[in-house]
Write a structure and sequence with these properties.
By secondary structure, the chain is mostly beta strands. The protein has one domain: SET domain (Beta-clip-like, Beta Complex), CATH 2.170.270. It has one helix at 2-14; strands at 40-41, 90-94, 100-104, 113-116, 120-124, 143-145, 155-159, 163-164, 171-172, 178-185, 188-195, 206-207. Residues 99-210 form the SET domain.
Length: 213
């Protein structure tokens, strides 16, 4: 997206040295809500024996701290990226309209990684008898569809209904400041929530999950 690429270029100009987002000043702007007892907290997806094709190794990128997807040598032509960071500063808060939501307690810049969209991986056949292949390619509720298929050639969803990370509670919005990015390292596939706007502490983080959300 041109406007996001311009924001990334602006960020490189104003912040030539990487600053760890977790070390930024924390603002006590809202009352944090405790983690839901019905959701098992996890920072990694449960594989449930789902496997992805191994795309092999790639040379370490030349990025220093930040890894910019628009210029990184490992992401210009393919969806692969070095291991990324997960922030600890986004917290759960009660929203006025949609229940629990995720707000940042620090200022965030475009390109900051909030975290991985975690849950349990599920496989579904690419072809369902009597239905077109795209019939199962939908995002709805908490399951999120990967673009990468499994080694069996099946569609793969990550279901965050019963377990997940802080990203489980990120709300859907038409006016969103974050986005979902699928990345792969070796045979490890993951979807990250990354900021596409600069936001101030106290801002609610939102993404667009698709029309079926």
């Amino acid at each position: 997206v041109p406007r996001v690429k311009q924001r990334l270029a602006d960020l490189r100009d104003r912040r030539p040295c990487y600053l760890d987002p977790d070390l930024k000043e924390i603002w006590d702007v809202l009352q944090e809500v405790q983690w839901s007892a019905n959701i098992q907290a996890t920072q990694l997806c449960k594989s449930n024996s789902v496997r992805f094709p191994d795309i092999g190794s790639f040379d370490p990128c030349q990025c220093n701290g930040d890894c910019f997807g628009d210029v990184c040598s490992n992401t210009v032509d393919i969806d692969v990226l070095n291991e990324t960071r997960t922030l600890t500063t986004p917290k759960l808060f009660e929203t006025e309209r949609v229940g629990l939501g995720v707000n940042t307690t620090t200022d965030l810049d475009v390109n900051d990684v909030v975290g991985e969209y975690c849950g349990g991986l599920l496989e579904f056949p690419a072809l369902v008898e009597g239905k077109p292949a795209q019939a199962v390619k939908q995002n709805s509720g908490y399951p999120l569809l990967y673009n990468t298929k499994s080694t069996k050639g099946a569609y793969v969803y990550v279901d965050a209904l019963a377990c997940g990370s802080i990203t489980h509670f990120i709300s859907h919005a038409g006016d969103f400041n974050g986005a979902l990015f699928e990345l792969q390292t070796w045979s490890r596939v993951k979807v990250l929530v990354k900021m596409i706007n600069d936001v101030k502490a106290g801002t609610q983080i939102a993404v667009h999950y698709g029309e079926e959300r």
